[in-house]
Design goal:
Elements: H1 16-22, H2 25-28, H3 32-48, H4 54-73, H5 85-97, H6 99-102, H7 110-146, E1 151-156, E2 159-165, H8 166-189, E3 193-194, H9 210-216, E4 221-222, H10 226-231, H11 234-261, E5 268-269, H12 288-311, H13 325-349, E6 351-352, H14 354-359, H15 368-377, H16 382-399, H17 409-413, H18 429-435, H19 444-461
Parallel strand pairs: 3-4
Antiparallel strand pairs: 1-2, 5-6
The structure holds arginine.
């Protein structure tokens, strides 16, 4: 085991297995460059404030910069037996600079250091997720535009309900993703406070300049309360929730895709490179990517549960339990990032069988609501109109007819005298879709308007 930072207090060290158990370096090593960035801002401030000599500050800064370069180039390898990334970097500084290295931690605790590193990391990672999300939205909106007028059945209870368009269905997906974008942006805004200077939980007696450090690191300002600064993990929880919700969306979209790709539906052909084969059944082209994204949504729900359970009942301020926070959130962020990229590739290359989709709108009486609304327009109260249309559907079923249009006008009139010849024009799937032109509806022109509006919204924020 590497030297620990607290060796002065405890003469005995945990045994190797116990050390490994409480070490977090396998997870927090990805914070290395953020840790160095925080240390550079901290030491520069210590020098300016006269807490350490200026030469010491300058030497620390130069060495920290060198360490960052060596880590990036791979010359310096992270010691996996160190307790955590903070210990490792301080150990390297001390090994190289002796007492100068030992000056770096004045006025700081790993408790504020780790929250700072975590926040700095997230301020890099969340914008990347936002970019992936915006790009995914762009791809879906393009596909929606391409299919703004492609007729398909809309479903409730997984039964054909009313005709809509494929573009309309895709914009429905986009609406969820656009809210996800808002959730990640909100979480990012709340990351804009710098916890450094909070110390272990109660600040420091040294004349630290928290404002300057916060500014140096690009934050809006320092956190308000030091105890909160080291105890708070709301930002992690919020992001884990944003990830879980986003993955719930992707999971549902993928479920749609899996259904559409089935032999029974055949609404979609996934590209060969976005499918996999079977080791035994030669005919198979499986929608594995969609299924795996759906499956990975489970781990983001699990990570959210981990974090909220971790925090519940935790006494103020810092407790070592909090070390478990990063693994859960990193996993969620990694999952979201890869799933967005995979989903995008799959959705972009899929071929929609629009003839089959449109054909599926005929035969299931998806026009029944339109027949009822026809009667409402002629003055019949809706409940009566609903009943008359239902009777017509029953008549059709009894006569082996697949659509209301197959019934003659005299036959229809036995159910309502208000039916006239102009009914027939209203019964085709396309007529049904085109007539649903309310704001938010599936009429192709309206779908195009929704697409344009969402594009404008995204342009304004991304
Ligand atoms: N590795 C620790 C974490 O991730 C750093 C903070 C340790 N602080 C402490 N008092 N043991 O939370």
């Amino acid at each position: 085991m590497a030297n620990v930072l607290w060796a002065g207090r405890l003469k005995e060290k945990p045994e190797a297995e116990a050390s490994a158990f409480q070490s977090s370096i396998a997870v927090d090593k990805r914070l290395a460059l953020d840790d160095i960035r925080g240390s550079r801002a901290h030491t520069a401030m210590l020098g300016r404030q006269g807490i350490i000599p200026r030469e010491t500050a300058a030497a620390l800064d130069a060495e920290l910069e060198r360490i960052a370069g060596e880590l990036e180039s791979g010359v310096l390898k992270i010691d996996e037996t160190a307790e955590d990334i903070h210990s490792f970097i301080e150990a390297v500084l001390t090994e190289r600079l002796g007492d100068t290295g030992r000056a770096v931690h004045a006025g700081r605790s790993r408790n504020d250091q780790v929250v700072l590193d975590f926040r700095l990391y997230l301020r890099r990672a969340v914008p990347e997720i936002l970019t992936e999300l915006a790009e995914t939205l762009r791809v879906l909106l393009d596909r929606a535009e391409e299919h703004a007028a492609s007729i398909m059945p809309g479903y409730t209870h997984l039964l054909r309900a009313q005709p809509v368009t494929l573009g309309y269905h895709l914009v429905a997906w986009c609406a969820g993703l656009e809210r996800d974008y808002g959730r990640f942006s909100d979480a990012l805004a709340r990351l804009d406070e710098c916890p450094l200077g909070a110390g272990a939980l109660a600040g420091s007696t040294l004349p630290l300049d928290r404002e300057a450090v916060a500014r140096d690191l690009g934050f809006g300002g320092p956190t308000l309360n030091s105890m909160d600064s080291v105890a708070d993990r709301d930002f992690a929880l919020e992001l884990a929730a944003a990830c879980a919700i986003l993955m719930t969306h992707l999971s549902r979209f993928c479920e749609d895709l899996v259904i559409w790709a089935s032999e029974e539906f055949k609404f979609i052909d996934l590209a060969e490179k976005w499918s996999t084969g079977s080791s035994i059944m030669p005919q198979k082209k499986n929608p594995d990517f969609a299924e795996l994204i759906r499956g990975k949504a489970a781990r983001t729900a699990g990570n959210l549960t981990t974090l909220i359970t971790l925090l519940k009942g935790l006494p103020y301020a810092y407790d070592k339990d909090l070390q478990e926070d990063k693994e859960a959130l990193f996993d969620s962020l990694d999952t979201v990032r890869s799933c967005l990229r995979m989903f995008r590739g799959m959705a972009d290359s899929a071929v929609f069988n629009i003839e089959r989709m449109e054909a599926a709108c005929t035969g299931g009486f998806l026009e029944a609501t339109d027949a009822a609304e026809y009667l409402v327009r002629k003055g019949l109260p809706f409940r009566k109109a609903h009943e008359a249309a239902a009777q017509v559907v029953r008549d059709c079923a009894a006569a082996g007819q697949r659509t209301i249009a197959e019934r003659s006008l005299p036959e229809l009139k036995t159910r309502s005298g208000l039916f006239e010849a102009d009914l027939y024009a209203a019964l085709s799937p396309r007529a049904g879709v085109e007539a649903r032109n309310l704001p938010g509806g599936p009429a192709p022109e309206e779908v195009r308007r929704q697409i344009a509006e969402m594009r404008k919204k995204m342009e304004a924020v991304s």
